[in-house]
Structures are given as C-alpha cells and as structure tokens.
Amino acid sequence: MERAVVTVIGKDRVGIVANISAILAAHNVNILDISQTIMQDLFAMLMLVDISNSDVDLSQLRKELEAKAQELGLQVIVQHEDIFRYMHRI
Amino acid sequence: MPISPQEILETIRMIRMEHLDIRTVTMGISLLDIRGDSIPLIAESIYDKIVEKARNLREAVEEVSSKYDIPIANTRLTVTPIAIVARAKEDEDLFPIGEALDKAGEAVRVDYIGGFGALVHKDCTPSDLALINSIPKVLANLNRVCSSVNVASTKSGINMDAVLMMAEKIKETAELSADRDSVACAKLVVYCNAPEDNPFMAGGFHGVGEGESAINIAISGPGTVRAALERLPNATFAELTEEIKRITFKITRVGELIGREISQKLGIPFGIVDLSLAPTPEEGDSIADILRAMGLEECGAPGSLAAIALLTDAVKKGGLFASSSVGGLSGTFIPVTEDAGMARAVARGSLSLDKLQAMTAVCSVGLDMVAIPGDTPVETIAGIIADQMAIGMINNKTVGVRIIPAIGKKAGEWIEFGGLLGKAPVLDVSSFRCDQFVKRKGRIQAPLTSFTN
Question: Which of A2, A86, A89, A90 to mutate to test the interface with B (most CBs of B within 10 A)?
C-alpha cells in the first residue's frame, strides 16, 4: 500500500472535511485515518490516505486540493508518507 | 508505530516556516575516459558525455521534490578536475572546455557545474598552468561554471607559488566582472585538503578517487536549528547539544531519503550526504542567528569560537547517525554575503576579517564569500590565502578561500549579488605588507603530525 499525508491548515470553518474528502473520493483515494489538532492558533486537519488506487499522480492530486483549499482560504500540504518515517523513526 | 500528528506538524513547520530545504542535489561525473587530440575535440566529448549522463537528472529532482513537498534549491553537476582531463600544454587556452561545460549544464538544466579546476598542492603540470590561466575569462563569461584549485594539503604542505598565482587570478577575475560587483569571484575557491565528493559550490568537483558517477546531497537547515534553540533560552550546554543533535538527525534523514530516491530513479550510486549547515540570505536562515540564540549579543562577540565549535561538533554527532554515508565538507559554513546575520554582524562592527578567520579554525570551512576592498594588493590577498591554508594544513582539515576583491569599493561599502549569493559590507584588510614573504619561491613543507602536545 502506498500512503500519503494530506494536511490542511487554516481557520476552522464548515465544510473542510466534506470538500477535501470529495476530491479524494473522486480520484479513488481512500482515507485511512483522520485527526485534528491546533498548531500555533491554527486549525490543522491531518489525513492519512491510500494512494495506491488513485487515478491521478500525487502532483495532480495536490494541484486539485490546493485549488479547493485556496477557495476556502486554507493551506493544504500533500506529502508521501515516507518523509515522516525517515525523519521520526530509526 | 504510527506517525503522530505532532511529528507531521513538526516536519511541516520545519519546511514551511523554518526554511528547511535541500540546498542541492549534485551529480558527480567522471571525465577520466575522455580522449581527444585537441582542446576543441576534448570539449566536444565532454559535452556529449555530460548530456548523456545527466539527461534525466533535473526531471528526477523535480519528481522527488514534489513527492515529499520539500524544496530542492539547486541541481548541480561536478566533473573530474579539468586540468587532468585536458592534458593541455602550458600556453593553451581552455576556454572552449569551459564553454562546453556551461552549454552542457544549460542543456540538462542545472544551476552550476563545478570542476574547472586543478590539484597543485605539490607542484603544477603544464596542463595545471593552462587551466589556472584560463580561470578569469571562464568565470567572468560563463555563469554556470565554477572553479577550484587545491594549493595545499596536510601531506604535502603549501604550494606558495600556486598561492601567489591564485591571488593574481582572483584579482583578474574581479576586474573582469567589476561591472557586477566582481561576482565572478564567487565561483572560485582556493583549497587546502579539498574533499573529492563535495556537493557544494564553488568548490565541488568529482575527485579522481571517485567512481564513474554519484549522487551527492547537501542540506540547508540553519533556520530549523535557530528556531529550536530560540525555544530553549535557559538550557544547559548539554541540553543545547542534545537539541542540535536531535534536529540535525532529522534534517539529515531528509537528505538521506532524497539522495537514495534520486539515486535509485537514475540508477546511479548514492554518494554522500554533506552534513554542513548551509545558510541562505533568507531572514533567520543564518548561522550568526544561531549564535545569537545561544546567547551572544552578536556573531563575532567573545565566545563566538566556543559557540560555533559546539554547534559544528553537535551537528556532526547528530548527522552521522542519520546517514549511511557522510562526506563532502561537513562543517559549518560562515559565508558573509550568503548569511544575512553575518552581513549584519560585519555592518555592526562585531565581526572583523581576523575574527572570521579565527572562527574557521574550529568550524571549517574557510573564508567564504568575504568581500575585501578592490585595491587590496595581490600580495596581501596571497598572504590571506596562505594564512588560511596554514590553518587547514596544521589542523588536518578542509578549508577554502572564496574572497571577492570588490573593484571600486572600500571597506564598509556594500556589494550586492542577489539570490543565494546575497549581499554584505566590504571588510577591512590590514595595510601591513607581506610582499617579500609571499614572493619567496617554492613550498612550505608538510607539517609534523606526531608530538601533538
């Protein structure tokens, strides 16, 4: 399974999960885990997603998520999961 | 164990807010198999080989950068020192080879190409002399090409004839680019104990002990270290060291990941991660600001050597464990123009050329991006280089001199290069002369390396 982390940062508002997950679903990207936290007074939503069956590549997915995030006044960051494993696990 | 939200956010904070990035992915290419009966024919074969070897490099770098959302500031190439490849006669002009390197670099979309250089720590061959004489024209006219000449080593001493020659070439290079604040000198390094796998410029080249090709990585992380230390104003020295090790481990791991992945994509061996903390002119991405976060009023204040020694050593201890293969320069960079905090320290009067040189004795990697008055005599530049080579030779470490005689400018006036090269005030240089000393012919002999008390 190939996984990525989608992080959404910004002011909390109605519809963040719905909007972001609609794009993921449209590309057959499955949400494996989802959590929310606060980072320096900002709302942060983190999604662990399975991209193995995605019908677009990671940079295309990022482009679409970024367009939507901009509409909602949010920032979205899409990264392959390995960067976190490398940095935080031995 | 799954990755926690805090860990994910720490990574994002480091990249998005604290300027963590990969400074460069540098591909080393051996040119030892290049043959040709004339300089133009050699130049042509060099162009063909580089374009063939590096044709997919840029694309691989962009793909990996996108996959992890980590910026990669530069893509670069290094080649075998051209003096060895060219086998030139003393009076031959090696500009056509410089041009071939520049054009090949353009064709494969890299930012810099290093290796227009020579290894002359014992003595010069005719080909070395041809190369050294070609340096000013090459650097002033070709934007991508970088040059380095190794004039000293712990095993062979300091080739003082080469030191004086390089001082002349630095001055000529400055004059040829006088209309651009003598920027061509930013692409020229004079070395002692040059490493063969350095991914940084301007001193990068692909050493003769290296293989056919390799992928070498350098990281830029001063901003993350500074931010971490600012969160610990009352920490003890032990706690400070632990925090630097922890942060450096993480940033080195990013370099290791990127290097391995690009190496795999291209089918080229992974070389090394260089552990150097490389600053950028971005606000806060500064070694001087790390020293301030440690408790110095300004970089250059008493305590600066102790602070930078602690930093450099802790970076190595954290980084070595994070990578399977460490190399290159692996020191702390204190380039004056490229680090906005260092430039500020010079402007405030806390950092002099002498203090800067003293700092290089504990942190590597030499006098870097230092602007001096344009009317500084060649012999004085040779004296500054000789002093720096002596620090490297006696202490068994790599040091370089990348010095910019700013033509038409005096101490205190600013030079401005823009981009990663930054800006800084011109430093004052001693007016006492060393002409008779640097003009003696020959070599300062290699030092004794036992009886070290």
Answer: A86
